[in-house]
Specification:
This protein has helices spanning 53-67, 90-93, 119-127, 166-173, 175-198, 249-256, 271-289, and strands spanning 15-18, 22-26, 30-35, 40-41, 44-45, 74-76, 97-101, 104-105, 108-115, 129-130, 133-134, 144-150, 153-154, 201-213, 216-220, 229-233. With 295 residues, the chain is α+β, with helices and mostly antiparallel strands. It has 2 domains: 15-101, Phosphorylase Kinase, domain 1, CATH 3.30.200; 104-249, ATP-grasp fold, B domain (D-amino Acid Aminotransferase, Chain A, domain 1, 2-Layer Sandwich). Strands 8, 9, 12, 13, 14, 15 and 16 form a 7-stranded antiparallel beta sheet that branches. A 5-stranded antiparallel beta sheet has the order 1-2-3-7-6. The longest helix is centred in the middle third of the chain and has 24 residues, at 175-198. It is globular, with a radius of gyration of 19 Å. The two termini are 28 Å apart. The mean pLDDT is 94.
Amino acid sequence: MSHLKFPTPITEVPLFHQGKVRDMYDLGEHFLMVASDRLSAFDVVLPTEIPGKGKILNQLSLFWFQQLQIPNHLVTADVNEYPAVLKPHADYLRGRSMLVKKAKRHDVECIARGYIVGSGWKDYQRTGKICGHILPPGLKLCAKLNPPLYTPSTKPDVGHDENISFEETIKIVGQKTAEILRDLTLKVYSEARDFAAEKGIILADTKFEFGELNGETILIDEVLTPDSSRYWAADKYREGENQESFDKQYIRDWLETLDWNKSYPGPEIPKDVMLATQTKYIEIFKKLTGKDPEL
């Protein structure tokens, strides 16, 4: 919610934008993107933070930026290369931030779905389609979608994202850009899905953001983190039931057991649920990268 302001230790440079999880600062030539430990579920920032979560998200995005062969907005994540004005905050920024190029964001959230789950499953049950894609009848929860689907959504600053058709994205960004966004989304998803499969992980779905810089479409924001993706254990996958996941689905499932209307303020997270969530994030980082995150 754009009217909410979360405390931040950095006051020496202008805060350009504060999202549910990330704080963006304007450094002139570049942005400083900082991943906080805030947790958002159902588009609500919960009052309990997950210690180290921002560092895991940031370091996993860095891993994927280096892994994927696609232009992106990363300049550096080495705090020693940051402008001098940020030196007093080096300890805070280390591991949870990056300097990025200033791209003009496309106002479409680009989602690739390899399995039928979440809002896609609800859409299918209601209409037999997902975002305008007609699917065969009788598909089960978490069934594999072959080929994967591109299912864009709107990117409002306030309120919930809303699934839209490909034709509607053309109205927002134009035919040529809409096709580029679709093709890049499916290409990056396929690359990441195949990489994750080698690690015993199913990348069920993910969402990307893209921007334009010097006439080129580049990958921006976070990429393939457990905040923006569903990761499942391949050896425990069972069609027709909910999967064991390494992402914030654990928190969503816990929230669904509460008498809460999914609006502000969100409920406090008990310590055991918070620690279990933290463990999920650490576990997927280790499985994908083969290393421990620097927390």
